[in-house]
Amino acid sequence: MIHNLAIIGYGGMGSWHHKNISERVPGIRVKGAYDIRSEAADRARKSGLYTYKSMDELLHDREIDIVTVATPNSFHK
């Protein structure tokens, strides 16, 4: 069974998670990403991902089974 994953936040760590999961985790397909910054969304699109226009759109995508939230280290607390 293939699970579909979406990434929230496509900065340095979001793009790292995309590459790492795609290369190393069989059974998970990274489908898309959402980022409030247009330049990050553009990078996700250029990397072959569907880019969600809003958080609501991502959360209502019935194909998504897993969400990775990639936030800067300072927000981990």
Descriptive overview:
This protein is 35% helix and 25% strand. It has 77 residues and is of the alpha/beta class. α1 links the parallel β1 and β2. The longest helix is centred in the first third of the chain and has 13 residues, at 12-24. The chain is globular and about 35 Å long. It starts with a strand and ends in an 8-residue tail after the last strand.
Q: CA-to-CA gap between the ends?
A: 34 Å
Major β-sheet strand ordering: 3-2-1-4
Order of helices and strands: EHEHEHE
Q: Which consecutive residue ranges, at least 5 long each, have pLDDT under 50?
A: none
Strand content: 15-25%
Category from helices, strands and their pairing: alpha/beta
Principal-axes shape call: globular
Which value, in Å, is the CA radius of gyration? 12 Å
The count of β-strands is 4
* Biggest sheet features: 4 strands, parallel
Chain-averaged pLDDT: 95
If helices are DSSP runs of H or I spanning 4 or more residues, what is the number of helices? Answer: 3
Helix content: 25-40%
